[in-house]
Design the sequence.
């Protein structure tokens, strides 16, 4: 029974099929919302699926000068990281499949795996656009990661636990959005940085460096990276909804709260112009970190007064 | 570029090739950018990929056919090319075009200026990564495209000009629809003017970026809105009014900063000025004939025409030998004048700013690509006949690059 349950958890729900489908669905919602904000028609609902199928069927060209093993393995690791992270998160309102003390830290690092793999994938090829893109991807990783981590540790501190299931139980009755608004803002914008959405799309700015770190990827590798991004978006939105929007105790709440977050994220994408990479770094270390630290000061101060 | 992709690691510097095929370029051109980290240390440009031999082809066509050929030099400012050509040929033939035709020419030219600048607004904001402004400005540009289609039946190559006049008249119903469209556009343009001068994130990409001082603009020979953003009062419509600009006066738009923000502001304000001018022309459109009869053979002689294209000064040299075909036509487009400023301004700026700096001059490569044949081995220039050029083209594309 244990084996069947584990296989189900890994391949069907919440890992595997469900996550891939949800990733593509959320990618479509994001693109559709953005197109509506920009007064365009936007893609049809099955476009992400069609893209994935087409890319998977395409030939994968391994460029000269790169390490073929790394070239093939990196996209797999990136997608696996995203799917594994989902096992510790209460996806779709159900309790996490696995849980242990401190799984929050593991989840956050599993989520960073995608960015890390993309950076390595870019550095692995000799393409100049890829190399510039990889530098930018990794630079961006080092700028948003610390504030994002601190922003997610805020609710953990309030709940007194670093276990996602316990934090989830604590936040189910409380909307930390109102008690920790600064942390919420940093977490949401940190997620946009993680997903390289505008205004943090300098690592893949097509007018400068074509497709950034992924310029040399075609076919299967590109499909896996894109699926990985979709998965990461779902997991990230779920984490923020669990931590800041009063938890996701049932599938309906899950859908409503994550889609509401996506509405805001898409709006910000439409509203903001791309930042240069040096401006991104400046923004995170000057304002992002400061906001989170102010939030922490308030929390610690509040705790001492009470 | 060799068959094998190589990273250039000499003195720790890194060369990023932009073009000939690159998402930032809507037309082929090649920029070789040396970077140290994200800072550009050297830039090199190679043009000529969109060369089509139009000047040579013109010598093989009669005066009327050449008009339609030259209109196809540029896909955006087609009307201004045919206007420059018509003005020159009419000058050679010693004809005076009826005032109504002159006014309609200017009116279409100003409509074209608005459509060209709106297109630029979209492209430039896309290069800077602000896609929402791109989508909005191109949506609003459709208003102008509809007006032009209503007037002439075409959206891009209107062929409104004829040698000796214009082809289309404007009736009161059309005038009303133009006024309506312009009213909507003026409201939108004022809104965009607010955005490009107040959006904090967008200003980070435009304010103080690619700054060209007045002195630099004069030395580099910048023209058009690019020069006017650097406070160089250079506008042919005012310096040497041609056609109906003698009666309908344009006020010059100048900005002092010379950065990308100033170029956005100059172009948007110019569109507002064009709207005003079009309304003025519509209100006092002279009555009279539309076209004069043109001779088939043009008197021998040479002439030079300067007009203000949306991108800046457009220069035509026309030589006639008294037959029904032009002896020589030379075109100098504004992009080639502004291109040196791109290379100059790119050095020392961030790699991320290069596409926006390039877009800042509103480049049009198919306009500027025309050539003289230079044989590098014997380093002599020679003139080719149309037949020779065609034969060379066929040989080249069959793989013989000698």
Sequence:
């Amino acid at each position: 029974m244990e084996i069947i349950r584990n296989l189900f958890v890994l391949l069907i729900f919440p890992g595997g099929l469900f996550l891939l489908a949800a990733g593509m669905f959320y990618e479509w919602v994001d693109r559709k919302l953005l197109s509506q904000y920009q007064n365009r028609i936007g893609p049809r609902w099955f476009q992400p699926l069609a893209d994935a199928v087409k890319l998977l069927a395409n030939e994968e060209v391994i460029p000269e000068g790169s390490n073929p093993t790394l070239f093939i393995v990196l996209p797999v690791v990136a997608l696996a990281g995203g799917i594994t992270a989902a096992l510790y998160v209460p996806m779709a309102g159900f309790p996490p499949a696995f849980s242990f003390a401190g799984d929050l830290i593991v989840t956050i690092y599993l989520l960073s795996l995608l960015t890390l793999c993309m950076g390595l994938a870019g550095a692995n090829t000799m393409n100049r656009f890829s190399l510039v893109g990889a530098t930018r991807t990794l630079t961006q990783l080092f700028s948003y990661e610390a504030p994002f981590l601190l922003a997610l540790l805020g609710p953990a501190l309030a709940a007194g636990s670093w276990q996602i299931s316990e934090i989830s139980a604590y936040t189910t009755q409380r909307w930390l959005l109102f008690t920790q608004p600064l942390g919420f803002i940093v977490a949401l914008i940190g997620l946009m940085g993680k997903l390289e959405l505008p205004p943090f799309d300098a690592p893949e700015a097509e007018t400068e460096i074509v497709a950034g770190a992924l310029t040399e990827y075609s076919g299967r590798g590109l499909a896996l990276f894109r699926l990985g991004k979709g998965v990461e978006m779902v997991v990230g939105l779920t984490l923020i909804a669990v931590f800041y929007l009063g938890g996701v105790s049932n599938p309906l709440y899950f859908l409503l709260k994550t889609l509401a977050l996506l509405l805001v994220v898409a709006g910000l994408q439409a509203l903001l112009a791309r930042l240069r990479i040096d401006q991104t770094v400046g923004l995170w270390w000057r304002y992002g970190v400061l906001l989170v630290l102010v939030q922490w000061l308030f929390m610690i101060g509040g705790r001492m007064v009470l | 570029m060799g068959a094998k992709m190589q990273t250039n690691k000499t003195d720790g510097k890194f060369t990023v090739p932009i073009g000939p095929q690159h998402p930032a370029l809507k037309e082929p051109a090649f920029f070789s950018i040396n970077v140290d980290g994200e800072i550009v240390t050297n830039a090199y440009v190679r043009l000529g990929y969109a060369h089509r031999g139009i000047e040579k082809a013109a010598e093989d066509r009669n005066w009327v056919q050449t008009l339609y050929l030259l209109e196809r030099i540029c896909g955006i400012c087609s009307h201004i090319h045919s206007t420059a050509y018509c003005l020159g040929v009419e000058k050679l033939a010693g004809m005076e075009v009826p005032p109504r035709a002159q006014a309609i020419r200017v009116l279409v030219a100003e409509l074209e200026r608005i459509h060209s600048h709106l297109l630029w607004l979209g492209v430039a904001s896309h290069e800077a990564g602000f896609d929402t402004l791109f989508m909005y400005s191109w949506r609003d540009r459709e208003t102008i495209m509809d007006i032009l289609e209503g007037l002439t039946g075409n959206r891009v190559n209107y062929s409104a000009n004829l040698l000796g006049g214009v082809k289309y008249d404007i009736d009161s119903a059309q005038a009303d629809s133009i006024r309506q469209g312009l009213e909507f556009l003026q409201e939108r343009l004022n809104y965009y003017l607010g955005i490009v001068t107040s959006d904090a994130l967008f200003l980070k990409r435009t304010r103080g970026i690619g700054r060209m001082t007045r002195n630099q603009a004069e030395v580099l020979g910048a023209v058009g809105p690019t020069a006017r953003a650097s406070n160089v009062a250079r506008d042919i419509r005012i310096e040497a009014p041609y056609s109906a600009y003698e009666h309908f006066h344009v006020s010059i738009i100048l900005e002092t900063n010379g950065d990308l923000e100033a170029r956005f502001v100059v172009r948007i304000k110019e569109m507002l000025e064009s709207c005003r001018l079009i309304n003025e022309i519509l209100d006092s459109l002279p009555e009279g004939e539309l076209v004069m009869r043109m001779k088939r053979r043009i008197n021998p002689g040479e002439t030079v025409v300067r007009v203000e294209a949306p991108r800046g000064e457009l220069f035509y040299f026309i030589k006639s030998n008294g037959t029904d075909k032009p002896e020589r036509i030379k075109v100098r487009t504004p992009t080639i004048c502004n291109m040196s400023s791109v290379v100059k301004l790119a050095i020392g700026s961030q790699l991320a700013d290069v596409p926006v700096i390039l877009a800042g001059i509103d480049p049009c490569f198919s306009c500027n690509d025309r050539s003289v044949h230079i044989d590098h081995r014997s380093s002599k220039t020679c003139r080719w006949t149309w037949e020779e050029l065609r034969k060379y083209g066929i040989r080249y594309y069959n793989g013989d690059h000698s």
In short: The two ends of chain B are 17 Å apart (CA to CA). Residues 56-356 of chain B form a domain with the Cytochrome-c3 Hydrogenase; chain B fold (CATH 1.10.645.10). Chain B has 15 helices and ten strands.
